[in-house]
From TrEMBL:
It comes from Neobacillus mesonae. The lineage of its organism: Bacteria, Bacillati, Bacillota, Bacilli, Bacillales. This is Uncharacterized protein. Residues 377-404 form a coiled coil. InterPro entries: AB_hydrolase_fold. Keywords: Coiled coil. NCBIfam families: SA1320_fam.
Length: 690
């Protein structure tokens, strides 16, 4: 870079940083500010004004130009002013801003610029409307009160920058109130699309003690850990040669050695720095994707464990412990029931022996009584064994679902990946990585070609001057120039749904799983429920039959005292055996009721248990936090690539319609670079939620 080559100050960039960052720091007189490498001195401040106005005046050390910086909303007075801006009332702060402008102009002379953010943007625009001779620049300005802006005026001295994620300006536009923001309006690609970043998306800057202008993404030491820069002025694209913003058109420059050197230097610094930042964002994205890829088995296993836990522990009944594997707890309860039945049946046989063998003295005085409940015990036992078979079938179904169907939840995608979401993003990102390398190499070659062309200009000029001085003929020399290679970016068949891919895949596989669960699990549970209810009825009938024995033991005839005594003893023995037989039956009935209620709860809560699996599947497909970080990183990379395309459109414009063949060749290469940047941006855009 020749030392004689000069650059224009990027005034709008400086003014936006002054408005969005320095305006809120409450600098004092004689403070020195460093803004984009330029030095400013604070020559005047006005704080704590009754109207709420906060402002300062700074002078650029290099140019001597004076700039007034208005602060945005900072206290209750400012909030009151914000409310008044929605009406026809002219707030006192608007008048105070005009008064401050007049005071500074009277004290220091010509005021070149005014700038502000939010409410400070409104006061800036009010001054710009009243004083068309001053350049006014705002970042995300508030409205002016109704009646201040003349719809027949263009207000070409006013420039408003709207951050792409700023809620205030988007709301103003949506409500059709943009006619109360005078002058030009340009959207810039700064900020992070997240609710928690509303404040910095609006002011364009962080206000940290160390002055850093980035948010940390991810956890330190973890894949994907990095930062995203948010300073708004870095997204204001300006002409390399004039320093003027590119949004309202560009001024054609002369193509000569000096201007080619400026282009070379700008490509090596500004463009390289921004693309390196985009590369860093994409590198972190790839780290996240590769990390998720490496954790595939763990993600599947964790989802299987969650599935198991949902049906074993979430119902709150211990009988379902192990239901997805062995079903031992449930089977154990059935075995206990069988034990109770066997006990009760044995006591009933003993009861029948007593009933069938009364003392001889009582035979002619009592009715013959017998109980026949064997068939009831046989039925109950058969149903319990049927439930054991149903439990076995249920555990087999759960085993199938966990070990076969859960892994299938991950399958799909363009290449039928085993890990559909991660696999498709990874496949797409491998292509992005290769294409980014191509664009970077193409840009390096283009930068070298610009340098070689500038050198050729200089050598030819020197040779021509020497020939004129010596009065000899001019002989053009030769110089090695970087050849042009063709860089065709690789197309990607992946991520056609963009990051909706995960949602679409989740919807699809969850509905399939839900259908399978309702089809395979619920019918078994309903069958078990019905069989348990049947067993309850059988046990109730059996218990009633046994209890009814005592009502059928009646003594009749002329009974002597000895007979009566024998009957009483006989009756007591029967009662004892009845109680003995009823005890295990009551326990069995209570156990059956408890098991049935547990199954009832599982059936009742089955829809909830199934629906509760959805967020776990979502997390297993791709960790939500990592997925969102992918979106943040790629959105930031896309915004840089959009900015770079704006710069290259201007480069193409500057190199177009030139007569020299070398410049035509440069123009063609610049068009190819622009085209490839657009293709790369589209591919990166696919890995965002927008």
């Amino acid at each position: 870079m020749n030392s004689s080559t000069s650059f224009k100050i990027k005034y709008d960039n400086d003014l936006v940083e002054l408005a969005g960052y320095h305006a809120y720091i409450s600098h004092r007189t004689n403070d020195r500010l460093k803004v984009n490498g330029n030095d400013y001195l604070v020559v005047n401040t006005r704080y704590d004004h009754p109207s709420g106005l906060d402002a300062m005046t700074v002078v650029n050390d290099k140019t001597g130009e004076l700039t007034i910086v208005f602060a945005g909303t900072a206290d209750k007075k400012d909030v009151f002013t914000d409310a008044q801006l929605l009406s026809k009332i002219i707030p006192a702060q608007i008048q105070a801003a005009n008064d401050y402008y007049g005071d500074m102009a009277a004290k220091y002379g010509k005021i070149t610029n005014v700038c502000g953010n939010s409410l400070g943007g409104a006061t800036t625009n009010a001054v710009g409307v009243a004083h068309p001779e001053v350049k006014a620049v705002t970042l995300n300005p508030a409205l002016l009160p109704e009646g201040i802006v003349d719809p027949n005026q263009s207000y070409s001295n006013i420039t408003n920058y709207f951050s792409i994620y700023d809620v205030l300006t988007k709301t103003e536009m949506a409500l059709g109130l943009d006619n109360r923001i005078p002058g030009n309006r340009y959207e810039i690609n700064n900020g992070i699309p997240e609710f928690s970043k509303l404040a910095t998306n609006h002011t364009g800057y962080l206000r940290e003690n160390d002055g850093r202008q980035y948010y940390t993404i991810g956890q330190k030491g973890q894949p994907g850990y990095g930062v995203i820069y948010v300073d708004a002025d870095t997204h204001i694209m300006t002409n390399f040669w004039t320093g003027k913003p590119l949004y309202g058109g560009s001024q054609k420059i002369e193509i000569n050695e000096g201007n080619l050197r400026i282009l070379e230097y700008s490509l090596e610094t500004d463009v390289h720095q921004q693309l390196s930042r985009a590369k860093e964002y994409m590198k972190h994205s790839l780290e996240i994707v590769e990390h998720e890829t490496s954790k595939f088995r763990q993600r599947v296993q964790k989802l299987q464990e969650t599935f198991t836990d949902s049906f074993e522990n979430q119902v709150g009944d211990p009988i379902f412990k192990g239901i997805t594997s062995t079903g031992n707890m449930f089977k154990f309860q059935i075995d206990i029931l069988l034990t109770f039945l066997n006990k009760a049946e044995g006591y009933c046989r003993s009861l029948n022996l007593i009933l069938n063998s009364p003392p001889m003295e009582l035979v002619e005085h009592i009715y013959h009584v017998n109980i026949s409940v064997e068939h009831l015990f046989d039925q109950a036992r058969g149903y319990l064994n049927q439930i054991k078979q149903q439990i076995e079938e249920l555990t087999n179904v759960f085993h199938f679902l966990i070990h076969e169907k859960v892994p299938e939840l991950f399958k799909g995608g363009a290449d039928h990946f085993a890990d559909a979401v991660v696999g498709e993003i990874n496949g797409h990102y491998q292509i992005i990585d290769r294409n980014h390398r191509k664009v970077s190499k193409q840009l390096s070659e283009f930068t070298q070609q610009v340098s070689d062309t500038a050198t050729t200009f200089a050598q030819r000029d020197q040779a021509l001057a020497a020939a004129i001085g010596s009065k000899s003929s001019f002989v053009a020399g030769t110089i090695d120039v970087q050849k042009t290679n063709n860089y065709h970016l690789e197309a990607s068949k992946y991520m056609t749904l963009r990051m909706r891919l995960k949602q679409v895949h989740l919807d699809l596989v969850f509905e399939k799983l839900k259908t399978t669960l309702y089809k395979m699990v619920l019918p078994i549970l309903i069958t078990i429920q019905k069989v348990l209810s049947t067993i309850e009825s059988i046990l109730e009938t059996t218990s009633f039959t046994i209890k009814n024995i005592m009502t059928n033991i009646v003594i009749y005839g002329n009974v002597k005292s000895l007979v009566l005594s024998l009957f009483t003893d006989y009756e007591d023995k029967v009662r004892a055996k009845v109680r003995q037989a009823l005890a295990p039956l009551d326990e069995a009935a209570a156990t059956v009721e408890g098991v049935r209620k547990g199954v009832d709860r599982l059936i009742l809560h089955f829809p909830r248990l199934v629906n509760n699996l959805r967020p776990y599947i979502d997390s297993a497909l791709f960790h939500p936090g990592n997925y969102m970080n992918l979106h943040f990183y790629n959105t930031a990379a896309v915004n840089i690539l959009k900015d770079m395309q704006l710069l290259f459109k201007d480069i193409v414009f500057q190199l177009s319609d030139e007569k020299g063949l070398s410049i035509e060749a440069l123009c063609k290469v610049s068009k190819d670079v622009l085209k490839n940047m657009g293709a790369l941006e589209e591919q990166v855009q696919r890995v965002t939620l927008t």
